[in-house]
Automatic annotation (TrEMBL):
<keyword id="KW-0269">Exonuclease</keyword>
<dbReference type="Pfam" id="PF12706">
    <property type="entry name" value="Lactamase_B_2"/>
</dbReference>
<keyword id="KW-0540">Nuclease</keyword>
<dbReference type="InterPro" id="IPR042173">
    <property type="entry name" value="RNase_J_2"/>
</dbReference>
<keyword id="KW-0378">Hydrolase</keyword>
<dbReference type="GO" id="GO:0003723">
    <property type="term" value="F:RNA binding"/>
</dbReference>
<dbReference type="InterPro" id="IPR036866">
    <property type="entry name" value="RibonucZ/Hydroxyglut_hydro"/>
</dbReference>
<dbReference type="InterPro" id="IPR001279">
    <property type="entry name" value="Metallo-B-lactamas"/>
</dbReference>
<keyword id="KW-0694">RNA-binding</keyword>
<protein>
    <submittedName>
        <fullName>Beta-lactamase domain protein</fullName>
    </submittedName>
</protein>
<feature type="domain" description="Metallo-beta-lactamase">
    <location>
        <begin position="15"/>
        <end position="239"/>
    </location>
</feature>
<dbReference type="GO" id="GO:0004527">
    <property type="term" value="F:exonuclease activity"/>
</dbReference>
Amino acid sequence: MAATVEFWGGVGVIGSSKVLITEGDHRVLLDFGLDIPRGTDLFRPPVVPRPHRYLADRLRVGAAPRLPGVYDPAMLEPGDPLAQDGPATAVFVSHAHIDHCGLVGALRPGIEVHAAPETVAVMRALTAAGDGLPGGDPDWRPLAEEESACFGPLTVERVTVDHDVPGASGYLVTTSDGVLAFTGDIRFHGRAPERAWRLAERAAGCEMFVTEGTALGLPVFPGPVRTEQDVVRDFAAALEEARGDLVLLAMYPRDLERVAEFIEVAGAAGRKIVWGEAVAVFLRELGVQDVLAFSEVGLQALKDDPGGFVYQPDLRDLRGIPDLADLPVGERTVWLHANGEPLGPFESRWPLFTEWLDVLGIPLRRIGSFGHATADDLHTLVHRVAPRTVVPIHTDAPERLHPVAGPVRLLPVLAQSYDLGGHPIERTPK
């Protein structure tokens, strides 16, 4: 029986990747991310998701896909036909970002979830810090670099790529009709671009190449793309400029390499980074050294020696934002945003965050680096891979990917079945 491909997420939107490959009575699902809403996020603060109804509520409002045979019946509405058994399924997660793994806690018991060992470690550390997946951890199966897992007639190989989280991976799925390659999230201006180009080498000539295309819908970058070296340099310069005053920080703690770099730079400047409680637990679980929690330092220490610290408050749900009024804000205090929470102006939390900073007189300086491949790099990647068919997902502008010299571009329809050549397959009426 021929292999088929369906796209249950990431179609016309950034995030929420879900690529389903089926052959015979076996299925492989590449990523099972949380849907990122096209418009209004119905679960934004102050709404608090109901833990016992987490999946049922999302299905009710269209914020999770009605993919048969994968969900835990205990998390579904009684009588929901999605509770019925489906074909044997294995899941392969590209990395530990919520839009790629946020629904794996809702998987049916017995479904294996494969990922890089670093990804599994990050997800287990989040659970230990009280920030785990709704539904709990799935059956994690660490998959080593370029290790293959056989699942029925399908073989899946993991290839490490470069992104802003440890363990980021692409996958090669070998079927009887050829190879489907998937980038996950990828960049070429980070710490290890050679990893990303390695995926291009391994995927060369594949039947279908499924690539993220986040940058396709974004404005043209003004000037050179910012690198991790730029981020570290700007962090060090900001600490020097703020000498004697408290510096505030918003960085993504899952970027463990940046965490270690920032701790080192802060130490060289005579400062210690202080983290919110959950982040401190998370970092310690992963073996990060010199981690200080706010409860171990206290507000008075920050007031007594503001120039000796960098502080990252926990503002995930903004409930603690009034606490900012208690901080010792000086003339040179600055809030350095390095891809942390809230993530950016596209988020519903961002206006409230910036309003508080304006009132408190704290300037915001964004020093982060883009975690995704630029449009130019994406086109170079596709040219090097030279697949028969290329499928841009994880973007709100897939039509802006223009392959040259051979590949056919497929702009998929959600949940439509295709063969590996990108041709739609009509479903047989029951």
